[in-house]
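During the reporting period the student researcher (J.K.) took over the structure-prediction task from the postdoctoral fellow and processed the backlog of single-chain submissions. One of the processed entries is reproduced below for the supervisory committee.
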Amino acid sequence: MAAVVSEPKFLAPPIFTPNPHLQQSHILHTLKFQTRPTKPTLFISLSSFTSTQFGGLSSGLAAHTVDFAPASDDPEKLEEEGMERDNENDVVASSAAAVVEEKESKDRRRAVRVAWEKLVRWSRSLRSKARTDVLERTKKVVVLGGGSFGTAMAAHVAGRKAEMEVNMLVRDALVCQSINESHFNCKYFPNHKLPENLIATTDAKAALQGSDFCLHAVPVQFTAAFLESIADCIDPGLPFISLSKGLELNTLRMMSQIIPQSLRNPRQPFVALSGPSFASELMSKLPTAMVVASRDKKLANAVQQLLASEQLRINTSSDVTGVEIAGALKNVLAIAAGIVEGMNLGNNSMAALVAQGCSEIRWLAKKMGAKSATLTGLSGTGDIMLTCFVNLSRNRTVGVRLGSGEKLEDILSSMNQVAEGVGTAGAVIALAQKYNVKMPVLTAVARIIDNELTPQKAVLELMSLPQALIMQERGRSLSARIIQEDT
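J.K. obtained the following structure tokens:
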């Protein structure tokens, strides 16, 4: 469209005198007037300014008018022009929205970047202050047991410092020879080379002599007899780091009770190591996080220094009971999860069962004095997720095969490793009775293992349970505890 621009007209002209001391300030205002679509549009630009000269003050206002030619009276043309204006408005609005969105996105990215940089600075600051004296002064570590997890932890510790001697006490002479001659555990890790400072032996006295730390990796059900046989070789001040998870079947004891009692030394330093960790992934140096728990804070910190590395993160805790009971019960729950998988009951059933199992573990653990934070942390929820949902789990594998119709005797005879949940199941139920806690899912697993209930019958019974259970919590009766709501 054609437009005629008028010359500026000063409505209140000031006095302008060329002077180097003159200062001016301008403010621009634009006004738009439109009466009807058939009438022209009038734009008025108003420029107001203030100037000072030798302390004096003067102001003025200038106006520019822009007159567009009248629009056509043709209705079709008017409609077309209206559509064009609408499209132009939409484009302008979209562009404005895009600009705002881009600015908000930049602000979000900046906020995330700043938060991450703060976290990194905080982490580096703490790492710079971290003590390393424990690792520096540790000269020898002994590992009791030559199984998969014991081997993985022995290899990890040996890799922390080449000058440190790591001794593995094993029963199998062939495994001992394989580790010492070819640096492979031929039984469990034939494809993973072990550090050269890792030495195997069948001599308990030679393995234990001069050790600064002891990693105990013997299965729970064999621990008492084993330790009693070598008690004379163990220094009363040697810290024991327990890698074993479970409860002793007949006595219901945890490892924190079995070790000092078997060694006839109630003051034997004890640390429980637990958390979501498969031996094969530790051997492959994949990122892993675990927890060390001890009632002795200094000892927990010392073990943290010994074990923590770029691949292995170690948290500390004082809740020994919570860490141990969660580590024991999750193995029984993993068998239940495997049974659901073996029976092809679907994802809904799996989620419902694991949620109910988590509640049962929490009920019992809290009655035993465990802390809620422990049960929702690495050694609780973290370990449960790994053991219940991943095929590498030995206990889950037992459950899958039970759910598929195999007999327990055939399953166990075909395995070269111990599934702690099998031996722990009966102890868990006895413990639940002791503390008056109802545990339908874990009780069903114990019945299936005892061959007193089939997996199919167990599912029917569990689905037929009443919707409310009466529980005792903190010495007070709570009636009508709704199972599905307490997860």
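The committee noted the following: The longest helix spans residues 75-129.
J.K. will present the remaining backlog at the next meeting.
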